[in-house]
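Late entry, evening session. Most of the bench is empty. Finally got around to the prediction I had been postponing all week. Sequence below, unchanged from the version circulated by S.P.
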Amino acid sequence: MNALICDPRGRVLSAGADGFLEIWDINANAASERFQLSPYSITSMALRPGKAQVTLVESDSLGLYRISAWDYEQKKNLFTLRFRDSISYANYSAAGNFLMVARSGRTGVAFINSDTGEVLKSPQELTGTVAFAATGRSERTMISYMPSGVLSYWDLESGEEIRHFNVPSNISSPVLLGNNRFFAGFDSSALVVLDAVSGQLILRESSIPRGTIIAGNNELSEFVCLAVSGNSATLYHLNISNSGNLETKNRRPVPSNLNQVSAGAVISDNSVVLGTRDGQVFVFNGNGSSRVMNTHSQLRLLDASVSGSALAFIAEDSKLGFIPLDYAKLDSKNTLRLQDASPYTHVSSDPAANSGFLLWQSSNTRSFPVIKTLSGQPEYGNTQDAFIDKVTLRFPLRSVAILKDRFAFLDSVGNITVTDQKEGRLVFSHTSSGAQDAAFIDENNMLIGRSVGTGSTAFLIVNVATGETVPLSIPASIGAEIYRSSSGNLYGGILSQNQNGYQTSVLIINTANPAQSRKLIEYSSEDTKFTMAEAQGYLATSLGGDRASLYRTTGNTEARPIERSDGLPQSILEGERWFIVIDTEGNICWHDPRTGRLLASFKLYGDEWVLEKGSSTIRGKVNR
């Protein structure tokens, strides 16, 4: 957990590394809503004054930096902006009309319209690195703090500096208090309080040498801080008197299991909410008592797949389960029987065939893949198992392709092995340097996607009967993803390089005449982790990471959004009359393949399963 704020209705909002926003009901002692807003880590969050809107600062820790604004009650994205530099500070102006954003690799501060994301005019003479900024209520003036030790005031109409003061450097966790009269924070050795009008140092409290100001009320001179000393931590409720003295109103030790506090907020009655790095939320009441909020208990899914009329899934607790593909056949009278899936983390199948489910894993070479063939109703979980021991596992597997009784295994260094399970034999082996993915064209031919080397192409056809190879002349730097639908259509995800970096496209590949391959979708950035599936003349894909969309495979290819569930799409499966979306929350969601409307969702808990269909809910037992 990286951020906690309290909204005007007394609800606590939290966000963190998983990209989810949780809304906590303090009275119910649990989260009332949980919704994923970002596929990336949310590093900080700001609440827009007077509105149910937040701005999130996001990062993938690999050089991608974004700011996104959301209406969290309507679950509506207002805008998303990408930056080349990491974002060190973001907050709203006093009336909420614009955002103030500072970047670690740039000087000054950028102003952004809170409704549209439009970049506005900001003071050009502000050239230092900014760690804090705030405006007055009229939004005509701004105060800023630079870690070099400068506190300055700016006229926002003229863009000119009004005055500045030399103050202690590297103040962390800064806040304004007492209607902008005091500026407080921690320097390298103590809690410090400045007169924000004159820049004068009012007090330095060395008895609180280091910590974090987790909340403050600008209209008052009171604030709460978490002080850390060695392995112990203490919550202080402090007040700055009119004479500039620091008064301790309350002091509470923090339990040792809360040493990894990462965020905090103040709620009513001097109660404090603290969030930890492992996602727990603790409430410290004003009367001195404390409690732990009830956290999320739904099990997430590692992988899922469709074969014939059944759907298989592997849960995060390494349990394997099966349910009917048709959600209307799920009945509360049926107990879902799970079996142990360890050490497997992936499940694959041919959705058009009843050839069973293949379990495999990609972390090591110690376990042969196993085929599980269902007998009886899917939820009973009765299977016959057959290990595929014809594969030489020299390197961990990267991907698996299945067509009827033929299985193709691609490992991490580009070795491809094809087996025929009906005949029980090894059919073919081949090595393709830089191979990223593979799929069957038909039972005798495979399409391989790869990184382009000297004289090579992004796609290669291999005949598994003769060993003949045919390169496909399709312009691309990387053939990253390949998907064969049950209709026989082949889709390729390619990366192409331009002056701004990589862009990602999805093609309908014509293997007989590559020049007639058609570009279906374009995305302006790099994405090699997306998923796609086809049903009833539409392609569903999660390209771009923020949501799933539908595209007609012929004619007009304008995107149509798929209705969101609580999580973002983790994988998309074709399922006869539906698109099946497995989201990052663990939901199995059925969607209308033409409209994208959410029809039903399946959730797995420790001792029960839940199916939600519109306003109705069906519950059943789970046998482990």
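Two things to note before I forget:
The mean pLDDT is 92.
The longest strand covers residues 232-240.
Will write this up properly tomorrow.
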